[in-house]
Amino acid sequence: MTNHRILLRSRPGGIPQPDNFVADSVPIRSPAAEDVLLETIFLSIDPAMRSWMTENPGYQQAVPLGTVMRGGGIARVMESRSEKFQPGELVQARLGWQTHPTLPARYLQKLDLTRGDALAWIGPLGLSGVTAYFGMRDIGAVKPGDRVLVSGAAGGVGQIAAQIARIEACHVTGIAGGPDKCAYLTNELSLDAVIDYKAEPDLSAAIGRSCPDGIDLYFDNVGGPTLDAALLHLRPEARVVLCGRISQVAADPPYGIRNLGNLLTRRARMQGFQVFSYHDRYEEARAWLAARHHENQLRQRLHILEGLHQAPGALGMLFRGENNGKLVIRAGNSDGA
Amino acid sequence: MTNHRILLRSRPGGIPQPDNFVADSVPIRSPAAEDVLLETIFLSIDPAMRSWMTENPGYQQAVPLGTVMRGGGIARVMESRSEKFQPGELVQARLGWQTHPTLPARYLQKLDLTRGDALAWIGPLGLSGVTAYFGMRDIGAVKPGDRVLVSGAAGGVGQIAAQIARIEACHVTGIAGGPDKCAYLTNELSLDAVIDYKAEPDLSAAIGRSCPDGIDLYFDNVGGPTLDAALLHLRPEARVVLCGRISQVAADPPYGIRNLGNLLTRRARMQGFQVFSYHDRYEEARAWLAARHHENQLRQRLHILEGLHQAPGALGMLFRGENNGKLVIRAGNSDGA
């Protein structure tokens, strides 16, 4: 049997391109003691992965050139030499972009299927959900009645962040690109207001119409001019959560933010974070998210691409806004149910 | 007897100019019941005063055109119709730019001369000191061993902020303009390193030399390119305290900050504040500052201009970096001793 892999070939300048990667195939590695042979089901495609492709990722080691691209996902146990795992069980792990990884058992976490199926675990219970949880609650200190603005609201983290704010009894405005994403946010996720940034010549004016009393909490996934526009509408003691900046990955030089003075006049706070800092508290987040998911308060639209061969082109879709929901690769034949 | 006053005549576009003000003279107003007639000794000249001159100051009411310019300072009681104050006592209050204000007793605070004389009360025990205290300790969460960078380090707030960091056993680098200010920071305030931004073609490189391991806490009084350069050197979980942005008052459009992405990769926090939010805790700050002042750990160089007639030109000096220490108007003949 063969393990199909995608290796990192070169480092991207701006938006990752398919030719930054190269595919190969190697024989499956038989598990040694305490190893587990897996069949990959889903791989999560997230903006943070681009930073792993660069020389100086800032917080994680760069993926070495010529090695399997790093990535998290869900897999089924095929063969186990650990007593902790049995064939057929579902696990999550940093699988890498490969169809049949063989990994040490200590790197695997068994899915608790009472909390949700594989689609839930790649969705709201996955790292995107956990990221939204800590960003909205710990960094954003969300509280009932807050006027909340979320950019990238139809994306992997944005969908969950917006729903957390809604669950917390906030007035929630989402920013997304295109009528389809906006209709989803309004009709399926029940946000209070939606801004289609592609249809708005003046984003600040649009924010002003949706949030006439200003913003208590801005959850930012995009950076650049969207962030600058949101700063104009901060209320006193507002919080700005910097979760991502997908608009800036190909910007050279980066967009210059002109409205930081409002942090001063509004006594506001802007804070960046990374979910990995909260590693010791993932269980807290997952318990909260699973309870809301179970009550159907927390949904997530997935954009599923079929086949590992689509992974090299998938990452660029995020930065061009082409994904319609959280972007996922289905690597195997399994439906994960 | 005559009360000499300076009125706000017009609102400034950029840096306040002398012709934004006009002088007049009116008879002293005799105190009514519970009023106190004062003789102004010192008036504090601070960057925040410019925001009071504009239509939309953000957090304080604008000074109405044609009325006495708002400003705080120290005065001596000439005549009192309140049993709480006796002639000859020293008080601090929002006196306004006038030589002989008559104010309700409830607006006055008696100076505790056991803590310091009038020069100490306009200096480290005054609002600049209190601002530095809350900015460095509450917003900046300064702790021993932090690598601290302070811009505007020879200014009213900057001097105290830098000394607080030194007292807290930090490595402190100050940024100031010109050899005289820099020598003062090194020789008199014993900072660990000083950067003369006027002599540095590449401010980021200079910060890198002074803070080779990066910055845990940046206390920003100037904004603009200095802030942008400091962002390049943030350590993980750094704090950026936005206290002022004097470099940007005449910038139209404002400088665009390009390095905010480092807040994300370094999981850093940037927060604006205003001292007035801490009104209920001024006593805490003054007790701390007075104890350090008493131990000679906290000094402040004052730049004293003689005569109220210099006030209209004084404010612009702050934004041109022409003050050599905390800027103060000595309004009366009294030495305040």
Your description of this structure?
Helix content of chain A is 26%, strand content 25%. Chain A is α/β, with parallel strands linked by helices and 337 residues long. In chain A, the strands form 3 sheets. In chain A, strands 3, 4, 5, 6, 7, 14 and 15 form a 7-stranded mixed sheet that branches. In chain A, strands 10-9-8-11-12-13 form a 6-stranded parallel sheet, with helices on both faces. In chain A, helix 3 (127-139) crosses helix 9. Chain A binds chain B through residues 51, 57-59, 223, 227, 236, 242-245, 248, 253-274, 277, and chain B through 51, 57-59, 223, 227, 236, 242-245, 248, 253-274, 277.
Task: Quickly list its features.
homodimer; 337 residues; alpha/beta; Quinone Oxidoreductase, Chain A, domain 1; Rossmann fold; 2 domains; seven-stranded mixed sheet; six-stranded parallel sheet; 10 helices
Give a concise summary.
The structure is a homodimer of 337-residue chains. Chain A has 2 domains: 2-123 and 301-330, Quinone Oxidoreductase, Chain A, domain 1 (Alpha-Beta Complex); 127-276, NAD(P)-binding Rossmann-like Domain (Rossmann fold, 3-Layer(aba) Sandwich).
Reconstruct the topology from this structure.
The structure is a homodimer of 337-residue chains.
Chain A: E1 2-8, E2 21-27, E3 35-44, H1 48-52, E4 73-80, E5 90-93, E6 102-104, E7 109-110, H2 118-122, H3 127-139, E8 147-150, H4 156-167, E9 171-176, H5 179-187, E10 193-196, H6 203-210, E11 215-220, H7 224-231, E12 234-242, H8 261-265, E13 269-272, H9 282-294, E14 302-306, H10 311-319, E15 326-330
Helix pairs in contact in A: 3-4, 3-9
